[in-house]
Design goal:
The protein is built from 7 helices and 7 strands. The protein is an alpha+beta fold. The structure holds iron/sulfur cluster. The site of iron/sulfur cluster (SF4) has 12 residues, from helix 4.
Length: 181
């Protein structure tokens, strides 16, 4: 009983094990019982979707839910590292503060209102089409009246489709994407 009690004291464990007090001997029972959050989870190997660096990611998942997204130490590109944006990939889809509704502020209004995705898509499509009709330069087969600036949440596939639709389809020439916006 006394021995058991004494063995709970890190100093005694340190003396018995001849260690320097920075290893397991310094841990409480609770700390020793802690398990990694992704223990026993399946892992999928992926690539960060955001920029051309292409850092490797390990996606741990269990029961159809993502548990964590971390840097892949075996990636020859990034060797386990992710920049702040790539490291926040998990929060991008799981954070409770994530905006999930379209916000609209009408011209000259000071108020933002919620709008359904269908209504917003229809509004944007109509305005793009009207602007294109008004500004399309027939001889040059392009319009400089509409521009597009992509941001951080667009992945490679989305950017490919945007480029294809806007340039080849609508004749827009002012297109850019900045992964860190
Ligand atoms: S956004 Fe960051 S983590 Fe993702 S590929 Fe680019 S540098 Fe790597």
């Amino acid at each position: 009983m006394l021995a058991e009690l004494l063995l709970k004291w890190p100093l005694i464990r340190q003396i018995i094990e001849g260690s320097d007090g920075t290893g397991r001997e310094a841990m409480s029972e609770r700390t020793r019982a802690l398990r990694p959050k992704n223990e026993g989870a399946a892992t999928a190997r992926s690539i960060c979707p955001y920029c051309g660096v292409g850092c490797g990611q390990l996606i741990s998942h269990r029961d159809g839910k993502i548990i964590s997204i971390e840097g892949d130490p075996e990636s020859p590109i990034s060797r386990g590292h992710l920049c702040p944006k790539g490291a926040a990939s998990y929060e991008l889809v799981t954070h409770p503060g994530r905006a999930t509704k379209v916000k609209y502020r009408a011209p000259f209004s000071r108020r933002w209102v919620d709008m359904t995705l269908e209504r917003a898509t229809e509004l944007v499509a109509r305005r793009i089409w009207e602007s294109r009709a008004r500004t399309f330069n027939e001889p040059a087969m392009h319009t400089t009246g509409i521009a597009h600036l992509g941001g951080a949440t667009l992945d490679i596939e989305e950017n490919y489709l945007i480029k294809k639709l806007f340039t080849a389809g609508l004749g827009m020439v002012c297109l850019s994407n900045q992964a860190r916006i």
